[in-house]
Amino acid sequence: MSSYTQKKGFGAAVWDYITTVDHKKLAVMYLLAGTLFFAIAGFEALLMRIQLMKPNNDFVSAGFFNELLTMHGTTMLFLAATPLLFAFMNMLVPLQIGARDVAFPFLNSLGFWLFFLGAVFLHLSFFMGGAPDAGWTSYASLSLYSPGHGIDFYVLGLQISGAGTLISGLNFIVTIITMRAPGMTFMRMPLFTWTALVSSALILFAFPPLTIGLLMMLFDRMFGGNFFDHTMGGNTVIWEHLFWIFGHPEVYILVLPAFGLFSEIIPAFSRKRLFGYSSMVFATILIGFLGFMVWAHHMFTVGLGPTANAIFAVATMAIAVPTGMKVFNWILTIWGGSIKVTTPMLYALGFIPSFVAGGVTGVMQASAPLDYQLHDSYFIVAHFHYVIVGGIVTALFGSAHFYWPIFFNRMLNETLGKITFWVFFIGFHLTFFLQHFLGLMGMPRRVFTYMEGQGWDQFNYISTIGALMMGVGVILMVINCLMSIKGKPAGRDPWGDGRTLEWSIPQPIPFYNFRQTPLVRGLDPWWIEKQEGNKEVTFAEPLGDIHMPNNSAIPFVISLGMFIAAFGALYNPDADKPWSIYVLIIGLAITFGAMIARSVKDDHGFHLHKEEILEIEEHLYGKGGNK
Amino acid sequence: MMKGLKKWRLFSLLAVMMVFLSGCGEDYLSTLKPSGEVGKQQLNLLLLTTVIMTLVVVIVSVIYLLAFLKYRRARVGENVIPKQVEGSHTLEVIWTVIPIILLLIIAVPVVTTTYKFADVAAMDEVDEEGNKTALTINVTAKLYWWEFEYPNQGIVTAQELVVPTGEKVYFNLKAADVKHSFWIPAVGGKMDTNVENLNKFYLVFDKESKDLKDGVFYGKCAELCGPSHALMDFKVKTLSPDAFDAWVDAMKATEGQTADKASTDLGEATFANSCLGCHAISGSGAGGTPGPNLTTFGDRNRVAGFLEHNEESLKAWIKNPEEFKPGNLMMNADGTAPIYGNLSDEEIEALATYIMGLSVEK
């Protein structure tokens, strides 16, 4: 069937991406969307740092600064880090477990479009009367007080994109539990897949509290509900609990897959299996579990009383133990190995000390009485940026280099990659190390300016220089990505040190991933095969027909309906916009219509026959097929 | 001998940290130069955790650097396949137990201090006559200023907290509109002012503030509360117990003080017409006025909490408060003019002189 191999026109290509349910194409879309929002949020951070470069600066106004800090935090966590990690999860999880796609390809597409349109909706707030300005935490008393529609954009946008995240999380759980290739037992799964599983389970339990909180906020703002209005018997502290019951696990939702990515990079470039694999798995689960037990450490100063504070302090410190286990296991993986300092490995090596530094300041802040001083100061800003940039962003950059050939069958430039690393890494420490001291010197966070004569001028100046360096680093990274378009095809296992199944697939990866389902004979199956001198993984089945899902535009239409409905809901409380109710109805009608269409229509997918597979492979790899 | 050497090393590390950390910041603002029991204990915890955590970072980094330097592919050879080690139970136990011990060392003082800082039982203690023995101050955080009410003394002030040295001062904390957070970095802190409930804690002030650069400690709002969150500063004046008592008496003596609309002083008349509706100029009584109490304005250190304390800033402030503290409540609903209208330059001039003259210390 030659339709799979023909060159397509631009319109057809766009339509293909809108309707695709292929996990690899969705991964690319997550990567692009995540990068876009990462760039936007990074730009917002630069504006803030320029404002804080000198005392009493008037580069941006106070109100706009609050919008910037809110959108920076919200975007980075929900709309940049999450989708970028989803990009890797989407791309790698099916390949690592030997599956042809995720369990629910339709939902995978729906998850992406909900996330993307929710994110676009949130960002339109900048052009439609002002962005949310109550911080990414959107604490209830301030967010209820905030005039305009900014907070409504926050509530509705996050509700929609949060639904997408939840759907994707569910999808990964089912995929990993049910779609593993023969022989891929749980204790043979690559660690990245393990962290994807635990992180998805965290999404499953952490996002509902956020959804409830956002719904209550929506009721308060639009229908005069009084969940958080203390003058009417509501309570704002409930919002803080709901938010942090979500918000703390969210940190682990992001950092666990980052750990997973490094647990792939470090063994590969040490040529050594991951040290203490089973204790790494155990530590991952333990961190995920403990992650739900510590939310109130964000609320030590709220006045929950000494007993609550003491319990949450000790519980928080306990998390340091499994995290420490992981760090030592990584180091022991390197120990006795054969380390090749490639760009991904450079990021991994930079990650270890940076993340440990961020982790230990976490223990300092877990000490409740000490946290009374550190809370809401620049110390906490330094701490979580050490964790997020030092842990997650380095993981994303490193993995982008590492997995670029899997995504695009191209390599990123190593020299430019290493330069990027050093610029970004030095900039990062320059920006955030001194912020610890700014906090200790009494500088509160989220301030749009500061007066002279408080001893903060110099450190803030240096911090801004560092931020600019980080900005240069990101630009170099993007240039590297763009340059790779003209690069040579990378081919199978281009690093030469791949260990897991994704490296065993010939490049470019066919849309059905595995011609024949592989048989997994141990941890690091591709490494085992290579050690035995095999050029190909062992197959679990003879060449036969492959069942694949059909493309569908319905996920996009469902999400578009929600996107339209959100505008109706947003403007509904305004007396001068009577049309808003119709927009709401039309939007919901589109969504429900599409859902009904999906329910009525039986879509069994299609079968790819043996001959077609051979034809495709001949086209992809030339005569002789997949050898 | 070995043991003694190790202790000595730890001590020297501590000393180095101490010197390094205390080099940072100003003594009226920095948590690293505390002048009060609470802040000092917090600094001790900071030093304890910093030493342990620095140790952790150093040990991890050393092992990691050693591993990196020893096992580079360039050194071990391009074609060497390292031994594929599964793991080590002994090592797992070691790096589980040691961190637990380190954390226990931190956890014990953390838990005891948590309870200690929360002990506000003395707030309710009374002497034989039924008077409260401890000094309690009700702090109300408002958009973007602070009200300090002394319920047992029956006085109230704003923006500049006045406290005696050498005793535990108890605080009832509350917010009037949105959530704020009460923080005096150089003395100890911090605690949120919630909208729905009272928070209680105490601080101790060791040092008289008159020797500091501005004669005051700096206080901050630590919770994002709107556009002017960054400008919601207050100042803390610490006095010797005798001086404090004198100040309280002077405040009490302002009972009934008000401005007269018919006054020949244009400043006083303008104040009575335009300001008195929101701002009291008697320090006696309870708080709750829409604007800050101005009884001690002339004694204060800043205009609006952060502007230089002179008539120029005050005049500019009265003319257009929005320009300096965006989002403050001195503007009318559409934000075009102050609620007291646009005063003439002459009125503002007189008003500034009058307000600057309000004092209990001069």
UniProtKB/TrEMBL annotation, chain A:
<dbReference type="InterPro" id="IPR023616">
    <property type="entry name" value="Cyt_c_oxase-like_su1_dom"/>
</dbReference>
<protein>
    <recommendedName>
        <fullName>Cytochrome c oxidase subunit 1</fullName>
        <ecNumber>7.1.1.9</ecNumber>
    </recommendedName>
</protein>
<dbReference type="GO" id="GO:0004129">
    <property type="term" value="F:cytochrome-c oxidase activity"/>
</dbReference>
<feature type="transmembrane region" description="Helical">
    <location>
        <begin position="274"/>
        <end position="296"/>
    </location>
</feature>
<comment type="function">
    <text>Cytochrome c oxidase is the component of the respiratory chain that catalyzes the reduction of oxygen to water. Subunits 1-3 form the functional core of the enzyme complex. CO I is the catalytic subunit of the enzyme. Electrons originating in cytochrome c are transferred via the copper A center of subunit 2 and heme A of subunit 1 to the bimetallic center formed by heme A3 and copper B.</text>
</comment>
<keyword id="KW-0813">Transport</keyword>
<dbReference type="InterPro" id="IPR014241">
    <property type="entry name" value="Cyt_c_oxidase_su1_bac"/>
</dbReference>
<dbReference type="GO" id="GO:0015990">
    <property type="term" value="P:electron transport coupled proton transport"/>
</dbReference>
<dbReference type="GO" id="GO:0020037">
    <property type="term" value="F:heme binding"/>
</dbReference>
<keyword id="KW-0472">Membrane</keyword>
<feature type="transmembrane region" description="Helical">
    <location>
        <begin position="384"/>
        <end position="407"/>
    </location>
</feature>
<dbReference type="GO" id="GO:0005886">
    <property type="term" value="C:plasma membrane"/>
</dbReference>
<dbReference type="GO" id="GO:0016491">
    <property type="term" value="F:oxidoreductase activity"/>
</dbReference>
<feature type="domain" description="Cytochrome oxidase subunit I profile">
    <location>
        <begin position="9"/>
        <end position="521"/>
    </location>
</feature>
<dbReference type="InterPro" id="IPR023615">
    <property type="entry name" value="Cyt_c_Oxase_su1_BS"/>
</dbReference>
<keyword id="KW-0812">Transmembrane</keyword>
<dbReference type="GO" id="GO:0046872">
    <property type="term" value="F:metal ion binding"/>
</dbReference>
<keyword id="KW-1133">Transmembrane helix</keyword>
<feature type="transmembrane region" description="Helical">
    <location>
        <begin position="308"/>
        <end position="332"/>
    </location>
</feature>
<dbReference type="GO" id="GO:0006119">
    <property type="term" value="P:oxidative phosphorylation"/>
</dbReference>
<feature type="transmembrane region" description="Helical">
    <location>
        <begin position="579"/>
        <end position="600"/>
    </location>
</feature>
<keyword id="KW-0679">Respiratory chain</keyword>
Automatic annotation (TrEMBL), chain B:
<keyword id="KW-0812">Transmembrane</keyword>
<dbReference type="Pfam" id="PF00116">
    <property type="entry name" value="COX2"/>
</dbReference>
<comment type="similarity">
    <text>Belongs to the cytochrome c oxidase subunit 2 family.</text>
</comment>
<dbReference type="InterPro" id="IPR008972">
    <property type="entry name" value="Cupredoxin"/>
</dbReference>
<keyword id="KW-0186">Copper</keyword>
<dbReference type="GO" id="GO:0020037">
    <property type="term" value="F:heme binding"/>
</dbReference>
<feature type="transmembrane region" description="Helical">
    <location>
        <begin position="90"/>
        <end position="111"/>
    </location>
</feature>
<keyword id="KW-0349">Heme</keyword>
<keyword id="KW-0408">Iron</keyword>
<dbReference type="GO" id="GO:0005507">
    <property type="term" value="F:copper ion binding"/>
</dbReference>
<dbReference type="InterPro" id="IPR014222">
    <property type="entry name" value="Cyt_c_oxidase_su2"/>
</dbReference>
<keyword id="KW-1133">Transmembrane helix</keyword>
<keyword id="KW-0249">Electron transport</keyword>
<dbReference type="InterPro" id="IPR009056">
    <property type="entry name" value="Cyt_c-like_dom"/>
</dbReference>
<dbReference type="InterPro" id="IPR036257">
    <property type="entry name" value="Cyt_c_oxidase_su2_TM_sf"/>
</dbReference>
<feature type="domain" description="Cytochrome oxidase subunit II transmembrane region profile">
    <location>
        <begin position="23"/>
        <end position="121"/>
    </location>
</feature>
<keyword id="KW-0813">Transport</keyword>
<comment type="function">
    <text>Subunits I and II form the functional core of the enzyme complex. Electrons originating in cytochrome c are transferred via heme a and Cu(A) to the binuclear center formed by heme a3 and Cu(B).</text>
</comment>
<dbReference type="GO" id="GO:0004129">
    <property type="term" value="F:cytochrome-c oxidase activity"/>
</dbReference>
<dbReference type="InterPro" id="IPR045187">
    <property type="entry name" value="CcO_II"/>
</dbReference>
<feature type="domain" description="Cytochrome c">
    <location>
        <begin position="262"/>
        <end position="359"/>
    </location>
</feature>
<keyword id="KW-0679">Respiratory chain</keyword>
